[in-house]
């Protein structure tokens, strides 16, 4: 590829200069077999669709400017560095066509389920999705579609339907399903009316794409929605962690006082969470049972209680939620293998949204 004029590129990382866009278009025309981007497209728009986050977009523009300058320098030297020139061109095409969404959601391969009315063979859309690192699963719409979709545990759903009415019914079922309702769900249909689009969006569908469509547009819209979905999940996780930190700060003094009282108790006391795991044991419990605190924490109650089966805990937990307390006689297994006959008093305790069972054991 020949050198271009020495006019400098604008050094803004937040946009593509006209000179940079021109050079990229020229490269795309020469590499048409290796790229799915139209050389005449607005490349700034293509990049903004590919990189939704402003920081990602700015970084992509900066990388392209650097690579194009290097490509220009290599090209000016004729055929002296063919392998390096080819490597630089591949990197430019990768930045233009490959968003960072797959790394954002998961390091694992993301699953896209495509629901169709008629069987489809390998088409441009399928090829593009595979090139972007997705695993595509195609389902024929029928009475079992909802169950099949849930079984595949997708990251997003594409509904590729000629007539959308049955698709709307399926979409409503998906949006009512707790497993699927928060996933990106995009519908493609040959109905172009505004009313159909509004109906789809009112249902809660993520996007409605009127056919015929370009496969590149569908993939770009899908990747945008996946990226937004990822940001939403990250924000929710950060909010949960912040709430937990605040709760821990608020409850720290109360917990210290409660632990002091528990430690002074002559009976041994265990705190069990809803998953049947010991989360706290007082000194008396360690002394009577012969375990260190570290050996008790994280154990299940039935590993300690000789008369408690794994399935019994759910029964006990349900009773505590309804009646707040329960008294039982049982036998606990000490570290040396001996049995300790005990009377158990279970109390249901809620602290800052977390539920526990406080078990006080008195030796018989």
Q: What structural keywords apply?
A:
364 residues; Rossmann fold; Beta-Lactamase; 3 domains; five-stranded parallel sheet; 14 helices; 19% strand
Q: CATH H level of the largest domain: which superfamily? A: Response regulator
| Portion in strands | 15-25%
Looking at the structure, the CATH topology of the largest domain is Rossmann fold
- Order of neighbouring strands in the sheet with most strands: 2-1-3-4-5
Overview of this structure, please?
The protein is an alpha/beta fold. The chain has three domains: 18-98, no CATH class; 103-236, Response regulator (Rossmann fold); 265-363, PAS domain (Beta-Lactamase), CATH 3.30.450.20. It contains 14 helices and ten strands. It has helices spanning 18-30, 43-50, 54-75, 82-97, 101-105, 124-131, 145-152, 165-176, 194-203, 215-264, 283-289, 293-296, 301-304, 312-323, and strands at 111-116, 135-140, 156-160, 185-189, 207-210, 268-273, 278-281, 325-333, 339-351, 354-363. Helix 6 links the parallel strand 1 and strand 2. The radius of gyration is 30 Å and the shape is elongated.
């Amino acid at each position: 590829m020949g050198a271009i004029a020495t006019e400098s590129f604008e050094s803004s990382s937040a946009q593509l200069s006209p000179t940079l866009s021109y050079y990229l278009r020229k490269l795309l025309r020469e590499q048409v077999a290796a790229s799915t981007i139209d050389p005449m497209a607005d490349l700034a728009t293509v990049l903004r669709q590919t990189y939704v986050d402003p920081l990602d977009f700015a970084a992509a523009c900066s990388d392209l400017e650097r690579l194009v300058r290097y490509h220009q320098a290599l090209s000016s030297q004729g055929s002296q560095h063919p392998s390096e020139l080819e490597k630089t061109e591949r990197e430019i095409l990768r930045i233009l066509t490959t968003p960072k969404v797959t790394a954002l959601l998961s390091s694992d391969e993301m699953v896209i389920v495509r629901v169709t009315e008629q069987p489809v063979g390998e088409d441009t859309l399928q090829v593009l999705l595979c090139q972007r690192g997705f695993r595509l699963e195609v389902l024929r719409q029928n009475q079992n579609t909802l169950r099949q979709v849930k079984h595949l545990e997708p990251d997003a759903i594409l509904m590729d339907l000629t007539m959308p009415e049955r698709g709307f019914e399926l979409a409503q079922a998906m949006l009512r399903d707790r497993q699927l309702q928060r996933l990106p769900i995009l519908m493609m249909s040959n109905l172009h009316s505004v009313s159909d689009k509004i109906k789809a969006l009112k249902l809660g569908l993520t996007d409605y794409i009127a056919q015929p469509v370009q496969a590149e547009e569908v993939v770009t819209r899908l990747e945008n929605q996946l990226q937004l979905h990822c940001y939403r999940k990250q924000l929710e996780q950060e909010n949960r962690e912040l709430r937990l930190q605040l709760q821990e700060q608020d409850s720290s003094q109360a917990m210290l006082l409660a632990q002091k009282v528990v430690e002074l108790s002559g009976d041994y006391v265990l705190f069990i969470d809803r998953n049947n795991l010991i989360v706290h044991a007082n000194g008396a419990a360690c002394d009577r049972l012969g375990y260190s605190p570290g050996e008790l924490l994280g154990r299940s109650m039935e590993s300690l209680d000789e008369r408690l089966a794994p399935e019994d805990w759910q029964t006990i937990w349900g009773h505590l939620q309804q009646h707040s307390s329960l008294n039982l006689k049982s036998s606990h297994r000490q570290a040396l293998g001996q049995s300790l006959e005990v009377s158990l008093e279970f109390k249901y305790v809620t602290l800052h949204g977390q539920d526990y069972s406080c078990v006080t054991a008195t030796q018989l």
